[in-house]
Design a protein that fits this description.
This protein is an alpha+beta fold. It has four helices and eight strands; from the N terminus they run ββββαβαβαββα.
């Protein structure tokens, strides 16, 4: 398990200005999602990404979780992403980084990578590797400490 505070990784201090599209082509602008966000970079062919997906999906649908979850598909086949997204709850924020704008802009070098971003767009924590229940509890505790 590898979690790092934002000052220890290669990305901007603030994650802002990124617009992505969901499987239907509808835009999602990360800045417009209110409150803290957990942004997960993943691909359909990535075993650890698929393994962690149920934990993240459950958190995304739990009203008591203190952040929104955004799944950013990277380095993947568009049709694989669309097929995967079709089988998921419609309430999930599933988007694709078609032009690698986000992952190149913030320096994602491995997947899965998950970033905790506060309400002001500041990256507070980065976890490289699959999210486990222990990691999820840690990220929720960090979010609670942001108040």
């Amino acid at each position: 398990m590898s979690s790092y505070l934002s000052s220890k990784v290669n990305h901007p201090d603030k994650m802002a200005g990124f617009a992505l599209r969901d499987a239907a082509g509808k835009p999602l602008i990360l800045d417009r999602i209110p409150g803290p966000k957990l942004v997960n970079f993943w691909a359909t062919w990535c075993g650890p990404c698929v393994e962690e997906f149920p934990i993240l999906s459950e958190a995304a649908q739990d009203a008591d979780v203190p952040f929104s979850v955004v799944f950013v598909n990277v380095w993947d086949d568009q049709s694989a992403f669309v097929d995967f997204a079709a089988d998921q709850p419609h309430a999930l924020h599933l988007v694709v980084d078609e032009e690698d704008e986000v992952n190149q802009g913030i320096g994602v070098v491995a997947i899965p990578t998950t970033m905790l971003i506060d309400a002001d767009g500041i990256v507070r924590a980065v976890h490289v590797g699959n999210v486990t229940p222990t990691v999820m509890a840690f990220l929720q505790a960090v979010t609670a400490g942001l108040d």
